[in-house]
Design goal:
1% helix; Methylamine Dehydrogenase, Chain H; 28 strands; 379 residues; mainly beta; four-stranded antiparallel beta sheet
Length: 379
């Protein structure tokens, strides 16, 4: 039986539940506030998943060893997936309140012990396309979670592994296409350096054939994509974290229908490497987390105009180190959530809630405290 750990921190109420085995999905309350936002939190030794409320209700979080120490959150087709990336890996589908409603393996027979699952693209027929960083094949799971196919992308990088990361589904001309980001790192170097431009593979959702590969003309796309409409995606291309004026890094808009990628905000305007991007639905307002080129990689949040690329004022930070992780707009696009790894004694790790006014002005609203740092949100 798995032993759960209850974290008691002033001003923080944690509702805890236990899963029976490492293969079970996490169980959390099946009812939550109408404005609840799913949150994934981790200190990279243990992890939690649950919800926070914008209206001030106490957070509800689950902690369990099955969640691992290197999680990611993937959102596609209105579905959310918690990815435990360590070791053999596991994928848990999450309900609206952060509760586990299904679990899947990212590995097929013959795969190495570790594949490092990165993202899940929910295909229209209920199948799941899972990208894997350490192997050159994406795996496709049937709606019941059984491996039914692999897609070999080894030819899309000279070293034989294109380092798949973010993934989602676009609708182009009435047909569904899986959108898969290929970081194309150099696997022959110790730290897998980003020495060449990244690309995106468009894969037909029915035939699973690679239809086209689009050069992003930027290096090191980092983290998840932010999808808007049927075929628009926003990406953070960090480039080299030790540099802050690279011409091939910044905020990118990818149009799957037109098969084009535009560098909307270059790194030279941001003053550092962009690590996450979130665009408010129905507006020209985007937000980004940026890290400077110092040894500490101090982080801050800025806004930007999605049409002109104009960068606004710093809305949060800078922090003392690489502390801001997790960025998302709430349901109404009026509140921005920002995770922060800066510990506040007697309270925990803050999630900053910032209120949007006017075209794209952000002001502090309040902080919600968690026992572990938040790294990802799902409105």
């Amino acid at each position: 039986m798995i032993t759960c750990r209850l974290h008691t921190i002033a001003r923080l109420a944690v509702v805890l539940a236990c899963a029976c085995s490492a293969a079970d999905p996490p169980r959390a309350p099946s009812a939550c506030a109408a404005d609840a936002v799913t949150v994934v939190a981790t200190d990279y030794q243990s992890s939690g998943v649950g919800t926070i409320s914008l209206s001030g209700a106490p957070p509800q979080l689950l902690f369990g060893s099955e969640l691992g120490g290197d999680p990611a959150l993937s959102i596609s087709g209105g579905r959310a997936f918690f990815l435990a990336r360590e070791g053999a890996g596991a994928i848990f589908e999450l309900g609206a309140c952060g509760q586990g409603i299904g679990s899947f393996s990212p590995r097929a027979t013959g795969d190495p012990a570790t594949v490092d699952p990165q993202a899940v693209a929910a295909l229209p027929d209920g199948s799941l396309l899972v990208t894997r960083f350490l192997v050159p094949t994406a795996i496709v799971l049937s709606p019941s979670g059984v491996p039914r196919a692999t897609i070999d992308l080894s030819s899309l990088d000279g070293d034989g592994n294109p380092n798949m990361s973010a993934a989602d589904v676009a609708r182009v001309g009435g047909a569904a296409k899986a959108v898969v980001v290929l970081e194309r790192l150099d696997d022959t170097t110790l730290y897998k350096l980003a020495l060449q431009p990244a690309s995106i593979a468009l894969i037909d959702a029915e035939t699973l054939a690679v239809e086209s590969v689009i050069d992003l003309k930027v290096r090191n796309p980092f983290g998840r994509m932010d999808k808007h409409g049927d075929a628009e995606f926003w990406l953070a291309a960090a480039g080299d974290f030790a540099a802050s004026s690279e011409p091939d890094a910044g905020i990118v808009r990818f149009d799957a229908a037109g098969r084009t990628a535009d560098l909307v905000v270059p790194e030279t305007k941001l003053g550092g490497s962009v690590t996450e991007v979130a665009v408010a639905d129905g507006t020209r307002c985007g937000a980004a987390i940026v890290a400077d080129a110092s040894a500490q990689n101090r982080t801050w949040v800025v806004t930007f105009n999605t049409v002109t690329g104009e960068v606004g004022a710093v809305a949060s930070g800078p922090t003392a180190g690489y502390d801001l992780r997790g960025l998302a707009w709430a349901h109404d696009a009026g509140t921005l959530l920002v995770g922060d790894r800066t510990f506040a004694a007697g309270q925990g790790y803050p999630v900053h809630l910032l209120s949007r006014s006017g075209d794209c002005t952000l002001r502090p609203l309040r902080d919600v405290y968690l026992p572990l740092p938040a790294i990802a949100f799902r409105p």
